[in-house]
Amino acid sequence: MAIAAAIFLPLTSPTRHPLTRRSLTSLRFFSSSSSVQPSFLGLKTVALRNPNFCVSATSTSIEAFEKESQISFLDRKERGFLHFVKYHGLGNDFILAIILSISFAWLLQEDAVDNRDSTEPKVTPEQAVKLCDRNFGIGVDGVIFAMPGINGTDYTMRIFNSDGSEPEMCGNGIRCFARFIAELENLDGRQSFTVQTGAGLIVPEIQDDGKVKVDMGEPILKALDVPTKLPPNKDQSVVKSELNVDGISWNVTCVSMGNPHCVTFGTKEGQTLQVDELNLADIGPKFEYHAMFPTRINTEFVQVISRSHLKMRVWERGAGATLACGTGACAVVVAAVLEGHVGRSCTVDLPGGPLDIEWREEDNHVYMTGPAELVFYGSVPL
């Protein structure tokens, strides 16, 4: 997904510490009259502000927080505000946020986790649509929720797209998710987490250079499981099969990375695809809502640069044209290998930048490596 928003709920985990006093010392809230200049991870400005308060982050203690928040939003006991941090992965951006209650108790108790057992998002799909709006909201592609782990995992991740629909996974979002968790819990160096998603178990690992490498699991190729109604033409898979879209025959390969993808390297006429020349706003929805895809589809249009280099543009189900799609880049490499275009390790160029993708033969897993960067932080009424 491209820009998205992530809601961080208090977590309880068998292998990770829940949100505690130490975790929350990274957050400070200021009244608009405060002379203190906030700073968070090197950021020197406050991105969003209302007449009464702004939100920023620092290493200041909760005790200092109490002294400097005499006229803060929380003191005034106003409900319905979302405090958030925004990250992006190659322009695919997300807000990661903490929803606070009306009292200080949630922040000040050593193990205070009012929502520690919450298994449902605290933002509705309708609210997510408003948050994602680029003119009247924060301007993101979706909302990501960090929630308590299940089945022995560290965390659970759920997502709302900008249209309010819920996808199974987001490759760029999981990288931002990992960076946010590591920074919130003050974890340094190489770190890994187990995350339950709608696509199954995902394992992101923060690298020494700050990038995040993600074990995306095995690709799903069986047509019925993608799902697609296109008839299998290679074992039980759809590989370089013909799909008629608005009178044009395209060669497509269908792959699921826990969410469905239709990958095309060009039309049946065999012309080399020049992805920069495509009118995605016109062709993308015709693929997304095609009758052959019962749950709609993410579509990747791919140009082969070399045996180890691909260039793609994506039309995402529920989000439209985005600057990057991590699961899409993984699906592209799998499809390119199946069609014989590339080897198993590739650089994939997206409008937002490159991702390194490897489909390992020994375990059949796909590995994605790329950046996740903080953009800004703020607050918004729900």
SSE layout and pairing:
Elements: E1 5-8, H1 21-24, E2 27-31, E3 53-57, H2 62-68, E4 81-89, E5 92-99, H3 105-108, H4 125-132, E6 142-148, E7 155-161, H5 171-184, E8 191-192, E9 195-197, E10 200-206, E11 212-215, E12 241-245, E13 248-256, E14 260-267, H6 280-288, E15 298-306, E16 309-316, E17 320-322, H7 326-338, E18 345-350, E19 353-359, E20 366-370, E21 373-381
Parallel strand pairs: 1-5, 1-6, 7-9, 14-15, 16-18
Antiparallel strand pairs: 2-3, 4-5, 4-21, 6-7, 8-10, 9-10, 10-11, 11-20, 12-13, 13-14, 15-16, 16-17, 18-19, 19-20
Q: If you had to describe this structure to a student in words, what would you say it looks like?
A:
The chain is α+β, with helices and mostly antiparallel strands. The chain is built from seven helices and 21 strands. It has helices at residues 21-24, 62-68, 105-108, 125-132, 171-184, 280-288, 326-338; strands at residues 5-8, 27-31, 53-57, 81-89, 92-99, 142-148, 155-161, 191-192, 195-197, 200-206, 212-215, 241-245, 248-256, 260-267, 298-306, 309-316, 320-322, 345-350, 353-359, 366-370, 373-381. It has a 19-stranded mixed β-sheet that branches. It is globular, with a radius of gyration of 22 Å. The two termini are 22 Å apart. The model is unreliable at 1-78 and 98-117 (pLDDT under 50).
